[in-house]
Specification:
The structure holds two protein chains of two kinds.
Chain A: H1 4-22, H2 24-40, H3 50-83, H4 87-92, H5 97-129, H6 137-160, H7 165-177, H8 179-193, H9 197-206, H10 216-220, H11 228-253
Helix pairs in contact in A: 1-5, 2-3, 2-5, 3-5, 3-6, 3-7, 5-6, 5-11, 6-7, 6-11, 8-9
Chain B: H1 3-10, E1 11-13, H2 39-47, E2 57-59, H3 65-74, H4 79-92, H5 97-110, H6 115-129, H7 132-148, H8 156-173, H9 176-189, H10 194-202
Parallel strand pairs in B: 1-2
Helix pairs in contact in B: 3-4, 4-5, 5-6, 6-7, 6-8, 7-8, 8-9, 9-10
The chains are: A mainly alpha, B mainly alpha.
């Protein structure tokens, strides 16, 4: 049996080549750069406090684009292998279905994290060019977002064996972008109906919290560094929740007729 | 929270009075003692730019002025931009009336037949400058425009206000005949208008006979 690392490395190389070939990243990079440059145009109108506005525009663009890229990259990992029938030669090799799923997650996660870092780097470069400094919390922002992308990729890969690719993309984008709204709805429900805090916390824990991995507003408004226990707690949450998504995917995939 | 964060967070930008304090408010993220979520709530307060909103103050609303400048440059016929922009100029400093009026005149140059802009300009002349005669001409233009063509929905309020200010400015000038004339004219278009009705009732005039209105009396 081939080791996990070898499987992941092989998938990673093909996944990276596939992403470069598809040119999604270039489109997203150009779009992000245009959005930031467009925001800079406001300076011509004498708008004060432009630094905050530009940072907000830049990090919102990076967050949205990297999330969309991560969902798109992850959602096509398994279904395309099945659709193109390239999964048969893969399964003919001495690897388990669990390793295949893990390798696909590792590929999606690595490529998504790379795309995110590239987007963040371009934004950082443009902001520096405009004379707008970034503070140390930017490092924590990068770190936490990468952890969040790992969790997101696990959710998308896990769901990709249950639903069709288009339904998966739609569902995951709703869960990712709507996570902040779901949180508010739980609080409103508690305030209106008075459900017990025990139930509230249980349900709250079951729902995705992708918005917790986004420190862009704190970067924009130049806050101090977060206590490290917060990063630790969120990493533990991502590991636990992400593993559950992958296990759920594996439970279905291991018996799936291909 | 650092000093910079505290300052930035507590001075939430808004149109309220500068230095106005809000003691019993809560934000989208509740304070620890109001939050039933325990560790989830604490995590959210850490990763979001959370601050305790109780007792915060507001920043100067004039900071938004460049945006009104921008939106009216981008679209010189954007009437609400001129109306709200003029109000923002005056909101923090009543002595900048000339600046506010100049901003409205610029809007009138691009939209001379805007009912809302004519009424708004007249309102400032009446309230801030007591220039009744000058205001009357703007109000007449607003009313003529409203009567000669069907006003857009968003201009209806300005159209009704034009009649109201016309009635009020004639009352201030002590011309009862004109006040009653414009109150009856207003009721033809807006039969439930409180200011026009009150003008008639205060002068013991019959209500509901506006169709028998004579021509506009001379000053």
């Amino acid at each position: 049996m081939i080791g996990h690392w070898q499987v992941c490395r092989a998938f990673l190389v093909t996944g990276a080549l596939e992403t470069i070939r598809r040119k999604d990243l270039y489109v997203v990079l150009i779009l992000t750069a245009l959005i930031i440059a467009g925001g800079y145009a406001f300076r011509a109108f004498g708008v004060r406090g432009l630094e905050i506005f530009l940072k907000d525009v830049a990090f919102t663009a990076v967050s949205v684009m990297s999330t969309i890229l991560a969902v798109m990259i992850s959602s096509r990992q398994l279904p395309e292998e099945i659709q193109r029938r390239t999964i048969y030669p893969l399964m003919a090799r001495p690897i388990t279905r669990g390793q295949l799923l893990l390798g696909k997650w590792a590929t999606a996660f690595s490529v998504s994290a790379f795309c995110f870092l590239l987007l963040a780097l371009v934004s950082y470069g443009m902001l520096t060019l405009f004379g707008i400094p970034l503070y140390p919390i930017f490092g924590q922002y990068l770190l936490l977002k990468i952890v969040g992308l790992g969790w997101l990729c696990a959710m998308v890969i896990g769901l990709s064996v249950y639903v069709t690719p288009s339904a998966n993309v739609t569902l995951c984008l709703i869960l990712a972008f709507g996570s902040g709204l779901f949180n508010r709805m739980f609080l409103m429900w508690h305030a209106q109906e008075g459900i017990s805090s025990g139930w509230l916390n249980l349900l709250y824990g079951l729902f995705p919290h992708y918005d917790f991995f986004d420190l862009s507003k704190k970067v924009t408004y130049e806050w101090d560094l977060l206590p490290w226990w917060v990063l630790g707690a969120l990493t533990a949450y991502a590991l636990l929740s992400g593993s559950l998504w992958l296990v759920a995917g594996w439970l279905r995939f291991r018996k799936q007729v291909l | 929270m650092t000093e910079r964060e505290t300052q930035g967070a507590r001075e939430a930008s808004n149109g309220d009075e500068i230095g106005h304090h809000h003691h019993d408010e809560t934000g989208a993220i509740p304070e620890p003692e109001r939050d039933p979520r325990g560790v989830w709530g604490e995590l959210e307060r850490q990763v979001k730019p959370y601050f305790d909103v109780r007792g915060h103050t507001h920043r100067d609303s004039r900071e938004t002025l460049p945006l009104f400048r921008f939106m009216t440059w981008a679209d010189p016929t954007f009437v609400p931009g001129y109306v709200v922009g003029a109000q923002v100029i005056l909101s923090a400093d009543e002595t900048r009336l000339d600046e506010a009026l100049a901003f409205l005149r610029e809007g009138l140059r691009y939209s001379p037949n805007s009912i809302t802009l004519n009424t708004e300009y007249a309102r400032h002349l009446i309230v801030k400058r007591v220039a009744y005669a000058e205001a009357e001409s703007y109000l007449k233009r607003a009313i003529q425009t409203g009567n000669s063509s069907k006003p857009a929905d968003w201009e209806r309020e300005g159209f009704q206000d034009a009649y109201r200010w016309m009635v009020l400015q004639w009352r201030k000038r002590g011309n009862r005949q004109q006040e009653l004339y414009w109150a009856r004219e207003g009721l033809k278009r807006f039969p439930d208008d409180g200011i026009c009705l009150r003008a008639l009732r205060a002068n013991q005039q019959p209500v509901g006979q506006e169709d028998r209105q004579p021509h506009e009396p001379h000053d």
